[in-house]
Amino acid sequence: MEICCGISLFGPPGTGKTLLAKALATEAGANFISITDAEKLTKALFSFASKLAPVIIFFAWCSWWLF
């Protein structure tokens, strides 16, 4: 299976976004990291995640990133 560069899941709380992201990570044999929308944490995460590749990173509540 070829893995795409990235996807974005958007919707209200309780619709299964996190569950789907975890399932994708499991099926892809990738690590799963879930974070909030803290910008400093996000930058540190990408630095850390680059060492764990392949990895799926799940951003919860990322309104600052979308707009």
From TrEMBL:
InterPro entries for this protein: ATPase_AAA_core, Mito_OM_Translocase_MSP1, P-loop_NTPase
Locate the transmembrane regions by residue number. 44-66
The UniProt record lists the keyword Nucleotide-binding: yes
Q: Which keywords does the record carry?
A: ATP-binding, Membrane, Nucleotide-binding, Transmembrane, Transmembrane helix
GO cellular component term of the entry, any: mitochondrial outer membrane
Q: Name one GO molecular function term.
A: ATP hydrolysis activity
Q: Name one Pfam family in it.
A: AAA
SUPFAM superfamilies, A to Z? P-loop containing nucleoside triphosphate hydrolases (SSF52540)
The segment(s) forming the ATPase AAA-type core domain are: 8-59
Name of this protein: ATPase AAA-type core domain-containing protein
Instruction: Please give the organism.
Output: Salix viminalis (Common osier)
